[in-house]
Write a structure and sequence with these properties.
The protein starts with a helix and ends with a helix. It has nine helices and eleven strands. The chain is about 35% helix and about 30% strand.
Length: about 280
Amino acid sequence: MESGEKMRTRELDRINIKNLEVFGRHGVFPEENRLGQKFIINATLYVPTREAGLKDDLTKSVHYGEVSHFMANYMTEHTFGLIEAVAEQMARAVLLRFPLIQQITLEICKPWAPIGLPLEAVSVEITRGWHLAYVAVGSNLGDKEAYIRRGAEALDRREDCVVERVSELIVTKPYGVEEQPDFLNGMIELRTLLFPQELLDALHLAEREANRERNMRWGPRTLDLDIIFYDDCVVDEEGLQIPHPDMENREFVLKPLAELAPYLRHPLNGKTVSQMLAHCMRR
């Protein structure tokens, strides 16, 4: 996922909030939760500021004062044992509260942490942000269109996912196992705060809610959701490969994907979706 993070940070401008002093009751010791202490927040907000700069219009950017007050209030109103949890939950809250912030690097600094040794401070720094994923969707059982619609709605209902667009649905012949009903296939363009494995878990949950049964490979199914692209990341883990390893051979994947993102390039072979589709259709 690192390559995707680097890509977005190069393209976006930055608003820096440095050494924001706040009060919080965070720590693993009861007295820390009861008495509280000072914390220091450093945040880099990755925001497109071009339009705000050209028009001198604050509504086109992010009000750093509002973000600062939001973080200060969050520190005061919540209690966590770990500053890792403070950073994780606050980053998520900021990204959900301020839509223009595409990514945030957040450092939570705890001065004089009680470790029994002279210590100026300890801190945790994380980078979190919105990711762009393309998810193939298909169905060949029951009310296929309704299953696909419910699958997209299940993702969009999540706080950490936003369905941006859904392609037109196309009727396709079965792939792998031919003796089964025709499929209805499409593509979902998704913004998400989830990491790849977390997104896969969310897709499996949506499939289970649609009564998906995994009785045989390439068999009939009420709902099938597959991650095709996730930013420009390459993932090779047990049970999860991104980009989808067989996408170049699947017209039913490439055709709806080309409708949404024809010039998106495969991070390994460098070909655009349109190029892959043209090559697939010539076979």
